[in-house]
Amino acid sequence: MALALPSWLTPFFFLQYPVKTPPNPDSFPNSQYYATGLKDIYIAITIIAVMAILRDAFRLLVFEPFARWKLTRDLSFKLAQEANGNGHNGEANGNGHVLHPTKRQQRKIHRSVLRFAEQGWSMVYYPLQWGFGLYVNRNLPTRIFDPVDLWVNYPHVYLPAEVKFYYIAQTAFYLHQILILNAEARRKDHVQMMTHHVITVFLMGMSYFYNLTRIGCVIMVLMDWCDIFLPMAKMMRYLELPQLLTDATFGWFLISWFVTRHVLFIIVIWSAIFDVPRLLSFDWDPVRGHFLSKGSHAMFLSCLLALEVLQIIWFWMICRIAWRVVTSGEGASDDRSDDEGGSTDGKEE
């Protein structure tokens, strides 16, 4: 199939830089191995385009129609109950006219449909990518509670196909998220989200080309886990499902966030700070793929710590929501980025 494509198109559809499988590899012994290079950007562009098409397809053909049907049906049932409660049959009021949704109710449905559909892509992407990331990490000789294995046999110059594709796909996803963030209406935490995505892409690119992919694989699977449950809780809220179910999902998201991003992630950062100088030499030698110097190490740690600071800020906001739910009985809502900074209609809020 590769021969049927012009040579200039091949990098957009196939992994580049194939090499012979190293002798006695410590992971994926039956996979094709690859080196890294700038041509890897081409397939990332293709993945971004595919994600854009899939996101709009799911949004327009699946999530928006479903949410509109569900919310419209629920509202019609509610109006019928109100009419019957007034002693009338069907959806009629006292004047014999059918009860219709008010403009306010229509605007609320429209807004909920759009929000539900926006979160839908996350609910498609994160479970699939987290599952694939778990598969990748289970086949690497690394342990989350003892991350010293992340640095053994550095540099990991050649990557099995699974690791290479996982890395490129994840990088493409965050580049796609940057495009979406700038295309949609600005949310209250636009600056924080943009900072997070830029740092993430920089870290992924740096670790990819500096042959530090094993720590990247661990961090990505940690980050993706709790990102499954926040969009799930939001979608439940937009569909007006029982508050107990929404709050329970949000509670599980809160626990998952704390464990993965403030316990396990800290363990990884701790290893990067103390195990790297102990186990590896600071030696900038591109010929053998060794890109670890004191400067690159400091830059890498600075980006990891910056991510953790952002996550601490967000976790404080999440805890405020949880406290509000417990003390006032209000339903969970995301203070980080759920609403825009301003409403197009003051009455709607």
TrEMBL record:
Keywords: Acyltransferase, Membrane, Transferase, Transmembrane, Transmembrane helix. Its main location: membrane. It holds the Pfam family TRAM_LAG1_CLN8. The chain crosses the membrane at residues 42-63, 212-230, 250-276, 297-317. It is found in: Membrane. Residues 111-327 form the TLC domain. The keyword Transmembrane helix applies. It is a multi-pass membrane protein. Residues 330-349 are annotated as: Disordered. InterPro entries: Lag1/Lac1-like, TLC-dom. Its EC number is 2.3.1.24. GO terms for molecular function: sphingosine N-acyltransferase activity. Residues 336-349 have a biased composition (Acidic residues). Belongs to the sphingosine N-acyltransferase family. This is Sphingosine N-acyltransferase lag1. It comes from Marasmiellus scandens. The gene is lag1.
